[in-house]
Fold this sequence. Notes:
By secondary structure, the chain is mostly helical. Helices cover 52% and strands 0% of the residues.
Amino acid sequence: MNEWIQSSVVILLVLWSVWLSGRRYFPQAIYRCQQAIARYLRQHQYVMLANYILPSAPQKTGCDSGCGGCSQACPSTQTSTQPVKFIHKATP
C-alpha cells in the first residue's frame, strides 16, 4: 500500500511538470489538446467540466503582441549610434 501511494505521488508530480513545461514551450499544442478534450466532454454531456477545461485564447507575448505597455523594454526601430570618443590624459 505504501509503495502504491509513493508511486502515485511521483507519477502525479511527473505529469504535472510535463504539463507545465508543455504549456511553456508548446502553448499552441496544449491549447489544441485542451480544446479537443473540452469538445469531447461537451459531446458526452459533461458541460460544466468542459467549460472548466476549455482554455482561453493563447495570449501573444513579446514585442510584436501590440500591447503597447512595454515601449521602453522593446527595442525601437530607429537606433541612434554614438561615436566613441577617446580622451588622452596627460601623464605627470
